[in-house]
Every structure is written in C-alpha cells, then in structure tokens.
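Q: What does the predicted 3D structure of Major outer membrane protein look like?
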Amino acid sequence: MKKQLTVALGLAVLATPAFATKARLQALGEDSYGSAYINDNRNIWLNSAQVNNHKDLVTYEFGGNVNQDSNETARGEGGAFKAMGNMVYGVQFGGASNTGNALRTGAGLISATGDFTDPTNPTDVSYQGTGLEENNIAVFVGGDMGLKWGANLEYAKTAQEDSPVSSEAMRTRLGVIMGDTQVYANINLINNAKGETSVTPSAGAVNLDGTAKFEGDLGYQVGAIHAINGNTLFVDYRSFDMSSDINATGTLGTIDQKKDISSKQGEIGIGRVERLNDKTSLFLKGSFFMRDIENDHGKGAGTSATLFGLLCSNGGITACEEYKTQRVPVVIGLETEATSWLTLRGSVSQVVWGTNKINGTESTVRNSTAINAGATLKFGELSVDGVIGTADAATAVAGENTAGGNGTLRTDNLMSRVAMTYRF
C-alpha cells in the first residue's frame, strides 16, 4: 500500500505541467529573470545550464515593445527550445535587459513613447530609435555529460554607428549544474548607445533637450546555488560600471559633461519548497539584499545637480547621486492545483528590516507589504499564465489590481502579464 501511494504521488508530480513564465515567478514574489529555489523556465536567464531542465517547449510573453518590462507595461518576448540527443538548443526574441535600460536612462538617455525625430527633417529614418536596447536575440546551447552545462549569447543593435541614434549590446551567460550545486556567470561584453535626451521630470518643473552617449565599461553577475536537506542556499552579486557624455540645453541652462555611474548589488539567502500534499506547495524565502548606486551627474551645483536630482526624486534611482539600500525581505508563497485545468498561486512579502540612503538622507523602508496573486489555465500541454497583482519584495514597488492596495478583484482586467507555454 505504501509503495502504491508513493507511485501515485510521483505520477501526480510528473503530471503537473512545468510552468515557465514571468507571471508565475512574480506571483510567487520572485524576480522575472529567474529564481534560485523555484523550478521555472525563466531560470535560464539566471543560470544558462538550466536550459537542460526546460526543453521541448515554446513560450510567449504577451506585451508591447516597451523599454522597461513590468506588470503594468509588459514587454513582449518569446522563443523555442528543443532537445537533440544530449544537447539542447534554443532561441528567444525580445528579452532586453531591464538593468541595462535603467542605467542608460540614468545616464541621460531618456526613453520616449515613440521614435525620436529630427525636427528639421521628420522623414529622416536615421533618427528612428530610442538609444535603448531593442530587437534583442538570445541563442542558447546546453548539454548533459553527467555535468550539465549551458551557454548563451545575446545581441541587440539598432541603426548604424554614424547614425544620430544608435544602440548596441552584447552579453553572454555561462553556467554549470553539478548535482546539488549550481554556479553561473553572466558577463556584459558590449553596451554602448547614443541618442537624444528629452525629458520633463515632473509637471513643468524642468526640461532638457540635447544628445547623450552611453558607454558600458564592466558588467557582470556571478552566483552560486546549493541545495541541502530540502533547503536552497544562494548568493548573487552584480556589478556594472559605465560612463555618459551629455550635451544638452534646457530651462535650467546648458549641460556639457562626461560622468560615471556605478551600480553594485548583492543578495544572500535561503529558500525552501515544502510539498504539503500532491497538489499544493508552500514556498518560503528569506534573504539579505543590498544595492549601492553612485552617479556623479548630480555632484556639485548648477543645472546637472538640479535636473538629475529631480529625476532621482521621481523614482529613477539610477539618476541619484547616491542611492544605498539594505533590506531583509521575507516571502511566503503558495501554489495549488485547484482543479485539473486550473492552478492558483499567491504570495505575501515584506521587508522586515530595511534602510534607504538617498543623496545623504537616510530613512527606514516603510509600507513594504506586497500581496501577489496569479493563475494558470491548463489545456493539455498548453498553459496560459497570468498575474492578478504583482509587487517585488526587493524594491517594494506595487503593481496593478490587488497589489495596488485596493483589495479589489477586477473582472474587467482579471489577469495581466499573460503568457502561454506549450510543451511537446
């Protein structure tokens, strides 16, 4: 009888589709670029060796052509992954880096709702583009020889080098899985751009029009993950250095300067997935998170200090002269198969201790409780995922609907960040 029960539980686990979207991870309080302790296809962006565990599928993330991916403004992307023997190959389109675009914006490359236009010649196509990452193509390859390995190369380029607006980015991801241990390194190879800066930080407060150049110097993300006694220990460190050259004129005067930006981020923590029964899993995570950004645009008096001070006060932390935060976020998530065709999930997260230091002013992290919820509709091997509301524990930024603080389930906008996965 005991043996039969064990087999039945095993079959139930195997029969459960392997969900693989940003919607699922964010509903469980995780970053959409992968989780150290939750099994999900998005983990290929954290450790490329995970491509061995997520193959023979196609996935589509519904959204628009936006520069900064979020629940409110989802960026569309999609790809396919196929096993051939002991090798796995894959390609993904549209997965631009949120970090890269945020740093470019902080450097003065301000995104627009549409393409920039030469005011003297609106039909000049050489001005098309925002100077941010666009048209990203990522290629994956992995193999299993007892030791699972994976590699990725991602490239994006718009316009030509002599164009007034251009962008080029290239990065590689390398990783291995050795039993219960994972090690990965994601390295920035090229990250350059030039474009126009055109911004009004807050209702008529200031404007700036001109040109900006962005040059990435060194960028990398390294980390290790180890599973032990049902727990997952992880450490992750990221470092990005870059410089920008701005020549612009606005209501506050003229800016003509070359400045540097540095961003450091680290996290160490523990996660655990507790199987409550054959249909329900409990997710627990606690960590220590820190981030340190220095941007010398705002140093000194005058136009640049005022402009980038306004950008910083409006939430653009990469434009702050100094931004430091230390936090201890805790996440409790739950996922259950409500029926054979419906899986529901949700999470609550809170920064139980945290401080912010912005341009020398220190404060505690307040109002950090975030409630996330999501669902998956299953049609055989096809899964449709969505988020009811989302917020990230590390940044405590609330999204729409339930996580926006209204406590309301809107039937006119039931799911956002919708995605579809088909396994073959």
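A (community wiki): The structure tokens above were generated from the sequence. The chain has a mean pLDDT of 81. Residues 2-15 form the longest helix (14 residues).
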